[in-house]
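Help! Submission page says 'invalid entity' but I think these are all valid:
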Amino acid sequence: GENVEQHPSTLSVQEGDSAVIKCTYSDSASNYFPWYKQELGKRPQLIIDIRSNVGEKKDQRIAVTLNKTAKHFSLHITETQPEDSAVYFCAASNTGNQFYFGTGTSLTVIP
Amino acid sequence: GAVVSQHPSWVICKSGTSVKIECRSLDFQATTMFWYRQFPKQSLMLMATSNEGSKATYEQGVEKDKFLINHASLTLSTLTVTSAHPEDSSFYICSARKPVGAGEQFFGPGTRLTVL
């Protein structure tokens, strides 16, 4: 099955700086890579996703890059704000039939 | 929008009893729903994939006789934890996938199960 690894497990940045979270996957058949933000005690919320036919996608301060050859994808958050503090999960899926999540990154943005 | 509800949000039960958790997609039909388990400060662990009208597909290590999943309609999947024990205490989250392509999934709010 798919194995998704995520790094780092914790990340602290100063407000205004950028944050980068990286994930690798093992199944070359995976073709959909969403990123979720989960605040304490709440449900995961999709913040951005990318499909295997695209190398990069951007939505305001958030961007995701995908390297299919190396089987890794990354989340980039620019101009971080305190409200960006949360746990972020990457995931990989093959045609949406199964989703496998990374271990999560706890991001703290220091005001 | 895409709204997924889950009921109950929190349940406490005695060891040995069974607990049913419902997951509903409120504004779309979900041919596929997923059940996850999440321990504090840990990631979501996929337990099973629930397909409407067919048997659920369980992940390795998940006891299908203990975690009964029924996907009776396009908007409802249920997870029943049978003969619950304290080690089953966890946060259970469902999600529903839109049927379009590799559709994104939308999560329910989760159910916190505490087994005494």
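Support: the input was valid. A stray whitespace character was the problem, and the output above is from the cleaned input. The two ends of chain B are 38 Å apart (CA to CA).
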